[in-house]
Amino acid sequence: MLIFNLHFIVFIIMALISSLSIAKDNLSKIPIAQNPITVAPTVKKPTRTPVIKNSTTTLMFRKNSDNWSNLEFVKVGTIATAAQICKVFSHPFFKGPKNYRLLDTTNGQFRWDGIEASTLWIKKKLKDANAKTRGLGLDENTLKIADKNFTACLKKIKIKNPKLFNFIKYRFLHYFKDNCLEARFKLKKKVDDNGNITEERIPLKKSSCINFNYNSRDYSYWNSTTFVLMLVWKEAHPVLSTIFDKGNKVLNARLIKQNKLIEQKRLAEEKSKGERQKQKELDNTRKQLWFAYKSRNKTLMEQVYNFSTTGKLEGSLYNYWVEYKKCVLSNGKKTVDNRKINMTAFRIYLETKRNNKIKTISSDGKFYFSTNEKISIDRLQNAWKLAFKKCPGKTSRF
Questions:
Q1: How far apart are CA 331 and CA 319, in angstroms?
Q2: DSSP-derived secondary structure for 140-177
Q3: Which helix (H) or strand (E) holds 347?
Q4: How many angstroms separate the CA atoms of 137 and 73, rounded?
Q5: pLDDT (tens digit, 9 = 90+) per residue, 100-114?
Q6: Integer distance in angstroms from the first to the last C-alpha of the chain?
Q7: What is the rounded distance in angstroms from the CA atom of residue 258 to the CA atom of residue 99?
Q8: Contact 93, 244 (CB under 8 A)
Q9: Cross-strand bridge partners of residue 79
Q10: Overall pTM > 0.70
């Protein structure tokens, strides 16, 4: 009887186990929506990668925080599109043939009153947004999109207006390398089992047209970093417009001054040219008169006066005497009436000047003749005796 009871108990236990197994299998076939069993969700640890909203348009700067383990970024503005960047260069400052060398520069960078508004504006906006104000803490997406738009604008300008492109390149982007505008590739060679070589162009990472590191990310004064940041920052464009208004005003004022000086110089040159032409004509006339005078016979009075002032009877090109009226002679500079010379006071003598040159003087104290040429005193005295005999002068008691 005991044995029978044990067998019966074992049978009951096996039946229960079998029933539980069947129930488990049936439960697994019930749809999830009808399954009354719920599973607790797995809690993930928060990631340290910052979430960037509107990544195609938002200008993100690093938040002003000392928490280096979890970098956070804040929105400070909007990234300008390529068209908006290019519109900045439609300002009159960039148009027409102008001499930009008239503007002041420091280390190759433009300087004029009001240009520092760029730095003041950037600092103000970063402070208002609670972003870092030291260096440029731009997030990776902002740099990537800004470079894409900036590159697209430069490509367009280079094709449509090469002169403007070069002006921007050499005056505003001292770091710039043209290769950032084109896609770069490297060639990879392959060979098949028959020895045929093929080449594959593998794209390389694009070189950025923006290089804030050139100025150590320093925007505390006007430089390429400041300029490019203002270009890719849409809200900064009105500030840029005001800055270039002031620059254009300075440039135009200096152009007007330069043009005025150029015009004055031109007029002075024309006047000088006219005077030179007049002098040339006068010299030609003088030479013609001199050749005519030299070739004709001279009167006694002309010879005496020429000899007294040049040492030569015919005189010289720039000093010869013409007796245009009896006893009255002129050399073009002064006129002498020989009859008014005081014969009593008339003397001929030698005089040594400070330069040790000896002059031969003929004078009555009022009328004065002299020559640096070495001439005979006796000959000069005889000449004046003949002159006074021909045209007697005045006499006095002493």
A1: 6
A2: HHHHHHHHHHHHHHHHHHHHH-HHHHHHHHHHH-TT--
A3: strand 347-352
A4: 9
A5: 999 999 989 999 999
A6: 198
A7: 10
A8: yes
A9: 233
A10: no
